[in-house]
Design a protein that fits this description.
The complex is a heterodimer of chains A (456) and B (365). Chain A is an alpha+beta fold and 456 residues long. Chain A is built from 18 helices and 7 strands. In chain A, the strands form 2 sheets. Chain A has a 4-stranded antiparallel sheet. In chain A, strands 1-2-3 form a 3-stranded mixed sheet. Classes of the chains: A alpha+beta (456), B mainly alpha (365). At the A-B interface, helix 3, helix 10, helix 11, helix 12 and strand 4 of A face helix 1, helix 12 and helix 14 of B.
């Protein structure tokens, strides 16, 4: 069969809508819970309201912080997540969720997390999937349920999950991770509080290497183990174990549960029908559910456009993580191309950045106390990421200019320790950062890394 | 392919199951468990409590000298009072970094050593006759810096100073200042010797509020702010457009600023190395913690940076205020030397211990 025929045949394959519906419910509930948790922990205040200054993403400097209206944004996000879960006005709900969640993330670069990025792009993909055509308030109101959908709708989610895991695994193929067991060698021994294993297993050298290697293998193999029917059971057990274990070890919030629930999409329709049956039983205790009329297959409108978009989307997802090869110097050091590439919990990096404001003419100078301008979290994130350092340098320059200082030049003396190496100078202290501009070009004022890390 | 997957899966399971096997707890590589409890015990029993004992004695002496002076304000009593003040001030340098327990609760160090002192507030307090020394607004009108002013700066020469203390309200304020310092110290010291010691030693968890984490963060904070910035950096004008010589410690006495800075640095270094307050024996400490974590090279580097800073400070004038005005470059060099250790402590040591610098919990990535 020719390639074109194969593709056509694949695109016309259909499968039960049930897994998509269950995924929608799980996703919506977890996002709803996630927003509430964020609110209750007071993070809206500490991250979006209290800081005087917010770090922005390159190209998204126009995204404003909203002061007290931030609460409304979170309200919209939470409510739309709930509406996604129950499948009420799903298209509007998922679009609202995608926009509000992404806007929240764009307001402050300090809180960049790979799993927030994952949720943004996942919710984007879900806009184009017919997740409300089965077992949803929309379906029940319209009295129409569609029993099958094109395979590619569910496969899109599987592909996205697979990409996340696989690339996370590829990222772990580097000499620090595999041959030095770094940074687990720093993180694991500090978990000495854990019962039974804290003072024993966590301290063992061989255990650090075992965790590094098995973490890498898990990430690389799990998408395939989940796909292949015979290994699916064990694979899911491993998913649960891996994520629960990392949750116990590290403060990673909702992410493990998001991944565990998402992994259910790999199971066949019978499994999901059982889940839906279970939920139906619970609901029928409160109100009578009138089963809608069943239609065999849901024909997606604008299929051509949606498919082309998804193809472009996935091509980007496959290519973007490799953009770091365009930049010279060590990736873990310069972080040029580090984000948006599933490099999850991969390095331990700490820095110290001391800014000097100089009058270019009189040569008078003074050092800045970062705590006057940044929260502890912001200062920590700024100290080892060059784009933050540049942005902060400009903020300081503008601030002191407003105060009346003249001929402002901003220099930084900074040191960074990476994966347990002794701290080294990070930024060229003779470069006036106030005169440098942000761009996609390599930053020549980052000092070279005095070591070598081999990797992809 | 299936076989390979099978083998890998079994390996993963084996590794996973082995989490319940804790045989051979002592049989490890270089990362054998460090006894944090022993470190806290060493610091409490051999450093903090003995320093408090010494300080307590010094403050008792200060109270006695103050009582004598207030009863009979003459030159010899003034001299004796000044000597007591200086002795207590030197011992204080060994305690300021322990902002934990009762000290944290009472904001102890803010009531003992905020400088420069605010002479306007002091004079206003004296004139009004009613004041609450524990009020936060009076932090810059109490403690050692206030005494510094009261004993040296309140008039132009000793004769004039003695004349000031013929007035009752000046005597009262002086007396209240000293009594307050003694009373605060007694509270904090008693807490240590009664219930807090046990709480402290047991609090070894790796959480933001545990004694271990607080101790490390306090230590670094004191070194960066209390020592590097307050004693050297701020007067040298590092954080301002011009030097600020009148912001040195002990500015009215004039010739003790360098000595106090050296005491503080000694206290910091001894604390890092776990060296007992009385004598030279050592126990578990940050240094030995680093060595257990296979980072001896870092411990050595930190000590060598402390030593370089010590040399630089020793090369300064005994009166740091005049050092700033005659040759500030030496001050900034001393600052730079102190600064190097900040990086080693705040970046390298914290990374090795894997203790978070801040108390904001956000999901780590």
């Amino acid at each position: 069969m020719s390639m074109e025929k194969r593709i056509k045949k694949y695109l016309s394959k259909t499968t039960s809508t049930a897994p998509l519906a269950v995924f929608r419910i799980g996703f919506g509930i977890m996002m709803f819970y996630g927003i509430i948790r964020y609110w209750l922990k007071g993070w809206i205040e500490t991250i979006y309201l209290e800081p005087k200054f917010h770090f922005k993403y390159y190209g998204f400097e126009w995204v404003k912080t909203l002061g007290n209206y931030t609460y409304i944004l979170f309200l919209i996000c939470g409510i739309s997540a709930l509406l996604v879960a129950i499948g009420y006005r799903y298209k509007y709900a998922i679009i609202a969720f995608f926009l509000s969640f992404t806007y929240i993330e764009l307001m402050e670069k300090t809180t960049y997390l790979n799993h927030y990025y994952f949720i943004s792009i996942l919710s984007f993909v879900m806009i184009f999937l017919p997740a409300e055509r089965y077992f949803s308030v929309d379906a029940y109101k319209q009295k129409k349920e569609y029993l099958t959908v094109p395979n590619w709708t569910i496969d899109s989610i599987k592909l996205l999950l697979g990409i996340v895991y696989f690339y996370a695994g590829l990222a772990k193929i580097n000499s620090d991770w595999l041959f030095k067991a770094m940074p687990l060698k720093i993180w694991l021994p500090s978990k000495y509080d854990l019962p039974l294993i804290g003072e024993s297993l966590m301290q063992q050298n061989w255990f650090h290497y075992a965790m590094s290697w098995s973490g890498m293998l898990y990430d690389l193999l799990i998408p395939f183990l989940l796909l292949y029917k015979k290994t699916r059971g064990i694979a899911f057990f491993l998913v649960v174990f891996f994520h629960v274990f990392t949750r116990i070890l590290f403060p990673i919030g909702m992410f493990p549960f998001v991944m565990i629930v998402s992994a259910l999409i790999f199971f066949d329709s019978g499994f999901h029908q059982k889940i839906i049956g279970y939920i139906k039983k619970i609901i029928s205790a409160f109100s009578k559910l009138k089963t809608p009329e069943h239609f065999p297959f849901y024909q997606i409108r604008n299929k051509g456009i949606i498919l082309s978009m998804l193809v472009v989307f996935f091509i980007l997802q496959l290519v973007i993580p490799f953009r770091n090869v365009l930049y010279p110097n060590e990736l873990f050091w310069t972080e040029e191309g580090f984000r948006f590439s599933w490099r999850v919990m991969l390095i331990e990096k700490m820095g110290y950045a001391n800014f000097k404001i100089v009058d270019g003419e009189t040569k008078e100078y003074f050092y800045v106390d970062n705590t006057d301008f940044l929260t502890p979290l912001q200062e920590k994130q700024m100290s080892f990421q060059p784009d933050f350092i540049l942005e902060y340098a400009h903020y300081l320059g503008d601030h002191f200019k407003k105060q009346g200082h003249k001929n402002i030049e901003v220099y930084v003396k900074s040191f960074v320790a990476l994966n347990g190496r002794l701290s080294q100078p990070f930024i060229n202290e003779d470069v006036n950062l106030y005169a440098e501009k942000e761009s996609f070009k390599p930053k020549h004022w980052i000092l070279p890394f005095n070591d070598e890390i081999k990797g992809l | 392919m299936k076989k390979i997957i099978g083998v890998i899966v079994i390996t993963l399971i084996a590794v996973a199951c082995s989490k319940s096997d804790d045989s051979n707890p002592g049989n490890g590589g270089p990362n054998d468990t460090f006894n944090r409890g022993a470190m806290l015990t060493n610091i409490a029993d051999n450093i903090i409590i003995p320093a408090f004992q010494d300080f307590s004695t010094d403050l008792n002496g200060l109270v006695t000298a103050k009582d004598n002076f207030v009863a009979t304000p003459n030159q010899s009593n003034l001299d004796a009072l000044r000597v007591s003040w200086y002795n207590a001030y030197k011992t204080w340098q060994y305690l300021e970094m322990f902002n934990i327990g009762k000290a944290e609760e009472l904001l102890y160090s803010f009531q003992m050593n905020v400088y420069p002192t605010n002479t306007t507030d002091i004079e206003n307090n004296i004139v009004s006759g009613t004041y609450d020394l524990t009020n936060v607004n009076n932090n810059d009108a109490v403690g050692f810096p206030a005494l510094d002013y009261m004993l040296y700066g309140i008039a132009n020469d000793d004769t004039a100073i003695l004349n000031v203390y013929t007035a009752a309200n000046y005597k009262n304020y002086l007396s209240d200042l000293v009594d307050q310092m003694q009373s605060l110290t007694a509270t904090v010291y008693t807490d240590w010797t009664s219930s807090y010691r046990a709480t402290f030693i047991a609090s070894t968890e790796n959480t933001a509020s545990s004694a271990v984490n607080k101790l490390v963060n306090d230590f670094i904070f004191y070194y960066e702010k209390g020592l590097r910035a307050n004693k050297i950096g701020i007067p040298a004008g590092v954080f301002s457009s011009t030097p600020l010589p009148s912001k040195v410690e002990g500015v009215y006495r004039e010739d003790v600023s360098r000595a106090l800075a050296l005491e503080a640095l000694q206290a910091v270094q001894d604390m890092f190395n776990g060296i007992a307050y009385n004598g030279s024996s050592s126990g578990e400490s940050f240094k030995s913690y680093l060595e257990t974590l296979n980072r001896s090279e870092l411990a050595t580097l930190i000590n060598s940076r402390f030593n370089t800073a010590k040399q630089k400070i020793q090369g300064l004038d005994a009166n740091l205020k005049s050092q700033v005005t005659t040759d500030n470059t030496k001050m900034t060099e001393a600052y730079d030397a102190l600064q190097l250790a900040v990086v080693s402590l705040k970046v390298d040591m914290l990374q090795a211990f894997n203790i978070s610098v801040d108390y904001v919990d956000a999901d780590g990535d």
